[in-house]
Amino acid sequence: MINFAKQWFVVVLLMSLLFIGCKKSEENKETILKGTTTILVDETLQPLMEDQISVFQSRYKAEIVLESRSEKEVMLAFLKDTSRIALLSRKLNNEEVQYFEQLKIKPKTTKIGSDAIAFISNKNNNDTLIALKDVILFMQGKSQKGIKGLVFDNPNSSTMRYMSELAGIKEMPKEGVFSFKTNKDVVKFVSENDGMIGVVGLNWLYQPSPDMADFIKNINVLSVKGEGSQEFVAPTQNNLAEGKYPLARDLYIINCQGYSGLGMGFASFVAGDIGQRIILKAGLLPIRIPGRKVEFITKSKKENE
Q1: What 3 state SS string does 12-62 have?
Q2: 225-241 as b/e, with b when 16 or more CB fall inside 10 Å?
Q3: Are residues 153 and 210 in the same domain?
Q4: Any idea where the PBP domain is (predicted)?
Q5: Do 171 and 104 share a structural domain?
Q6: What is the pLDDT of residues 183-213, one digit of tens each?
């Protein structure tokens, strides 16, 4: 009888442990609105994504780790399965799409808004206008008046890739083009050196970190004349909306998790009303302008008397 009682106790204990284990496993299971995941972010868009993640985590039981890297580094990590969620300023190319399809994963691409590449100069430079054609010629190794040098964030960045494609070059000239590591480095260098033209993501200028405030005060954001145009256009939210600024680029959240996880929930959040308001507040262009509710309050006749 004693042995039976002991056996029964062991069975109950094992069942209890199994139930607790299953319950904890269920609680920790990632869904579209809870769990833990990592998002790879193009460094030029880091400030925007920090805001989005902060608000998302405050509303849902989710923990998102942000890994900010150059575009090329993001793609290497993305393909190696360091994370299957990425924010980029381009869509996947055919080769990348085929890679995921071989893994039986269909990439889900969500357009969330538009950003831009901006040119900046030192505040001491009185000229705040620049022709895109002159920048392209300089990148092709042809010296141009008014450009002492071009400064990029990173040789593997999206800004470097974008401008190289425009210039039709595979390698930068050995003289006159410099690169650091981040957009912050570019802003700092240009603020301290006359004659240099910095090439940065617009997001960093609209949402500078506190330690960048003094550097931002010492730079000019240049208006750009596109090829075939006679108008110099500043990289403002309004000009992005009207399609006037020549260096605009679309932003995408790409989800290759292959299941209904936080990637799907986060992309929907950023493309939804709250996420679009965050993009609007950041000075960039959302894919849809969030509506405003205007409430008219009229006084009664008695109140007017």
Answers
A1: HHHHHHHHHHHHHHHHHCCCCCCEEEEEEEEHHHHHHHHHHHHHHHHHCCE
A2: bbeeeeeebebbbebbe
A3: yes
A4: 35-272
A5: no
A6: 999 999 999 999 899 999 999 998 888 888 8
Position 301 confidence tier, pLDDT thresholds 50, 70, 90: very low
**Domain match, 72 and 162 both:** no
The predicted-structure confidence for 99-133, as pLDDT tens digits, reads as follows 999 999 999 999 999 999 999 999 998 899 999 99
Q: What is the mean pLDDT of residues 21-43?
A: 76
**CB atoms < 10 A from the CB of 95, how many?**
7
In a domain, 83, yes or no: yes
CA nearest 43: which of 196, 185, 165? 185
Residue 210: both structure tokens together: 């506190």
Rg (CA), the chain: 25
121 with 228, same domain: the answer is yes
Give the DSSP letter string of 175-224. Answer: SSEEE-SSHHHHHHHHHHSTTEEEEEEHHHHHS--GGGHHHHHTEEEPEE
